[in-house]
From TrEMBL:
It comes from Croceibacterium selenioxidans. This is Uncharacterized protein. It comes from the Bacteria. Residues 1-23 form the signal peptide. The lineage of its organism: Bacteria, Pseudomonadati, Pseudomonadota, Alphaproteobacteria, Sphingomonadales. Residues 24-52 are annotated as: Disordered. Keywords: Signal.
Length: 352
């Protein structure tokens, strides 16, 4: 089945979910289970979380609350109707492009629809936004570079971890993106694995009670340890390397990018329900942020969704070629570099 047809199925599922959430009153907590319902179990007795969860089903809900919503956790009926209509109009972009023999953002982006809640961040409830940066957080933010905000590209540090096809970072990896939003959960005795379509990332989460590695052992996505509390999978992640962003520098995330430090800690809850699961994440980084925040939103299971290959990896020469051919910033730097080389009597051989 073609991706477009799968997107249509995903949108129908998302619209069905949004209709159910139209009467949403509580935000930031798992919805109550229907009377008589109980979570399925794996063959070895753990709560069964396995399945595919395309996060684009809530892709039109922003991570941070927009100013027009003030301190409200939920949209009004009119606001929500407009949000769903706007999402449907964006999703129809592929059909409009096809009718005009075009290929553009309509066929590329997969935003899905919107939740009634005003943001994916549910605490602090009064703002729905990431708390203010500390002094050190502001200093680190000024050093954040990416292909979106750079003027000169001379070294690896001029590109962030997403540009380099390494990771979007945490908690960004667990949030919707404009495309490649497939998330699959696999389980085996003593393990949960979360596989992401975007940047083909996997998070391996042991459940056997082993301690975290030594504090000197750090990685891009941190080190996760999980256990079940009733039906809920609880995952604590530490040992971050402080090199990936909390929120990427980009054109549409409402920030100039949020950095991380090696002190970041994230506690996640995955609570199963009849149609999927409810995801929660408590994020704290006392070096960067003046306070913690919480993300909370539903994941709807849709096993008809087929993830595509994300053909990008660190050191991929096609990525650099694309940046070179499409970025006017790179072109300007290239011209200036060639001028300086010519003045110095050096011939540029086309290397990076």
């Amino acid at each position: 089945m073609e991706r477009k047809a799968l997107r249509t199925l995903a949108l129908l599922a998302a619209l069905a979910a949004s209709t159910q959430l139209g009467a949403q009153e509580a935000v930031g907590v798992p919805p109550p289970s229907p009377s008589g319902w109980s979570a399925a179990r794996t063959e070895w007795g753990d709560p069964d979380l396995r399945g595919t969860y395309p996060l684009d089903q809530v892709g039109r809900t922003p991570m941070q609350r927009r100013p027009e919503y003030g301190n409200r956790l939920l949209m009004t009926d009119e606001e929500y109707r407009k949000a769903v209509d706007a999402a449907a109009d964006v999703e129809a972009g592929a059909d409009r492009e096809d009718a005009n023999n075009q290929l553009g953002a309509g066929n590329w982006f997969e935003y899905g629809t919107a939740l009634r809640q005003t943001a994916l961040i549910v605490e602090p409830a009064d703002t729905g936004r990431i708390p203010a940066l500390t002094g050190e957080g502001k200093r680190l933010q000024t050093r954040m570079r990416s292909s979106w905000n750079g003027e000169v590209f001379e070294k690896l540090g001029d590109f962030n971890s997403l540009d380099r096809c390494i990771t979007r970072g945490m908690p960004a990896t667990m949030l919707p993106f404009p495309y490649n939003n497939g998330v699959r959960i696999f389980q085996s005795p003593g393990w949960v694995v979360i596989n992401h379509e975007m940047i083909h990332e996997q998070r391996f989460i042991p459940l056997d009670g082993r301690p975290q590695p030594h504090e000197d052992v750090k990685s891009w996505l941190g080190s996760s340890r999980g256990h079940f509390e009733g039906d809920t999978l609880v995952v604590e992640t530490t040992n971050f390397n402080g090199l990936s962003p909390m929120v990427i520098v980009g054109p549409s995330n409402g920030t100039s990018g949020i950095p991380t430090s090696t002190s970041m800690k994230i506690v996640e809850h995955f609570t199963p329900g009849p149609n999927g699961l409810y995801y929660e994440a408590w994020v704290e980084d006392p070096v960067v942020l003046t306070g913690p925040f919480k993300i909370g939103y539903p994941w709807t299971r849709n096993n008809a969704y087929e993830p595509f290959e994300y053909a990008c990896h660190e050191g991929n020469t096609l990525v650099w070629a694309n940046i070179r051919s499409t970025s006017p910033r790179y072109a300007n730097w290239r011209a200036e570099n060639e001028r300086k080389l010519a003045e110095a009597g050096v011939t540029d051989n086309g290397g990076s």
